[in-house]
Amino acid sequence: MQTNYFYRIYLLLVIFVNAGATVDSNEQSNVGVKVFGPGWDNPQLIFPSRYFFVQHFSDKRVVRVEIEGKVGENVAANRKDCRIWTQVFNETNFDFDMIIVRYKLMSDRCSNGVIIKLFDANNELLMKKETSTAIYAEECVCHNLRWNELMNCDQNSEIYNQLFADLRTFNNSKFNFENSLEEMKRRYAPYTKSYSFCHYAIVNNEIYRKCYGEYVGFAQFMDDMLISLASKTRLPNTQLIVNLGDWPLSDTRRGSIAMPVFSWCGSDETFDIVLPTYEITESVLNMQGRVSLDILSIFGRQNGLPFNKKTSKLFWRGRDSNRLRLKLVDLSKKHPKLIDAALTNFFFFRDEIEKYGPSVSYTSFTDFFNYKYQINVDGTVAAYRMPMLMAGTSLLLKPVSKYYEHFYHLLRKNVHYILVDQELDELLPILRHLIRGKQYSAKKDELPASDEEQAAIVHNMRKFVLKYLLPSHIYCYYHKAIVEYSSLLKDGEIKVSKEMQLVYTAKSKKCNCNKNDANKDEL
Ligand SMILES: *[C@@H]1O[C@H](CO)[C@@H](O)[C@H](O)[C@H]1NC(C)=O
Ligand SMILES: *[C@@H]1O[C@H](CO)[C@@H](O)[C@H](O)[C@H]1NC(C)=O
């Protein structure tokens, strides 16, 4: 990219002028690399997997990363006490020219802290970061009242415009939680097979819940996020309703009141308070563990080729959870030079397998990015792979839809992605334009034609991911949502009924850092 190139030259000049300066972790541009992210800025902050970025601006390049527990007086004990698993993703062939480093504590703590070293190709130490106190694993309870400040949660971020818009409905004197819960139970609890939701109560940083419906397994995602937050900081006393199903539930049909339901998907017709989806939430909580796909690994992996070397086709795989997906497959059968779309599973439209089948075997998600174009077609609701597609290196197409996730409101067409009409009627002319050049679409002046213009949109989309969709942003959003929502509840004691089950107390975690530390509630 042009600007990037000039920026590099500028930095080279700065580096030249500064030549001879000593290596110092605070003077990052001296060595032509910029290091940022919570796992570097503040290793004491607990994450399931701590992470940071090393961006290159010159020929000086970090090629090796070493992260280990610092050794104290009792060396043998220290070695055992601190186990760290480090992963490095190499994005140097792509637009940000950086490596992504993440490290997970496999032991409860590193008693003497950690030391992070970044080396160049000559094995020269470029930068170093040390902590002076112990660091702890996700499994520990380490309260910090300044957690959200240390997390660098930007309280004024425009990402919260969605949250405040969602809360507006309940920001009035008529809103009453008990009434809403009763309404929720009356309308949805009887239909146990179709709906499931939980009533959570948080009192003195202990978490309780009662769930309704037959399929309540998805409560795990909310439990895990709340537990992770409650073990890091103090949550307000509050109670909330969480929808475990796909469809948003807070509608005002038949004159009923809008209910403050937290959901993973919103729609233009409902009043649910939208949270980051369980999919991205889980990928944050189980990163570098159980889940294989997450924002950082997709962002940083060598997923396919540079944009201009990718196959010039639209690529899509998924289940048959929406008729529009069948239409996409049909278009693909008729226009195989433009589209490679196929279903991996028939469930909803089994009787149409003749026409839209056969189902194809699974394609690894990173292989999606061997193609220039991706499309995110709704499933039952918004397809939650959106953030993962945005972390990739292909140009994203998105049909108009009434369903949205918590961040869609900040996406701009032709800046971050290409907008397609709801019925995919414009898909072919748009693809012809993207693939073959200008003359094919009525919107020829708006749409990017060259590889460079298209790659620039991919770059904007990836910048969006770095700005709004990293693990820290997901944590901040949940925290902010709970705090702001709770401010709308009327004062009064929160009743924990006998039916509610205890989900978390500080004692349910296996290690407690505050117990051992002199400076409680302080990192
Ligand atoms: C990343 O890839 C580049 C080019 O393939 C290589 O030169 C570099 O050593 C790699 N860096 C790391 C940290 O693996
Ligand atoms: C509720 O409305 C008041 C007055 O407009 C506003 O100051 C406050 O920030 C709102 N609270 C939330 C959580 O939206």
Give the overall silhouette: globular
Average pLDDT number:
88
Ligands present: 2-acetamido-2-deoxy-beta-D-glucopyranose
Number of strands: 24
* Percent in strands: 15-25%
Q: Compute the number of structural domains.
A: 3
Rg result: 25 Å
Lateral strand order in the biggest sheet: 16-14-13-11-12-23
| Unreliable spans | 1-27, 517-523
Please give the count of helices.
17
Our measurement of the CA-to-CA distance between the termini, rounded to an integer number of angstroms, reads 41 Å
Largest sheet: 6 strands, mixed
Q: Give the helix proportion (percent range).
A: 25-40%
Structural class estimated from helices and strands: alpha/beta
What does this structure look like?
It is found in: Endoplasmic reticulum lumen. Residues 1-21 form the signal peptide. Pfam families: Glyco_transf_90. A hairpin with a 5-residue loop joins strand 7 (114-119) and strand 8 (125-130). A six-stranded mixed beta sheet has the order 16-14-13-11-12-23, sandwiched between helices. The chain has 17 helices and 24 strands. Helix content is 29%, strand content 22%. The longest helix is centred in the C-terminal third of the chain and has 18 residues, at 451-468. The chain starts with a helix and ends in a 7-residue tail after the last helix. The protein is α/β, with parallel strands linked by helices and 523 residues long. It is globular and about 70 Å long. It folds into three domains: 2-138, Sandwich (Immunoglobulin-like); 157-275 and 473-516, no CATH class; 295-449, Glycogen Phosphorylase B (Rossmann fold, 3-Layer(aba) Sandwich). It binds 2-acetamido-2-deoxy-beta-D-glucopyranose (2 copies). One 2-acetamido-2-deoxy-beta-D-glucopyranose (NAG) binds at residues 164, 167, 171, 484, 487-488.
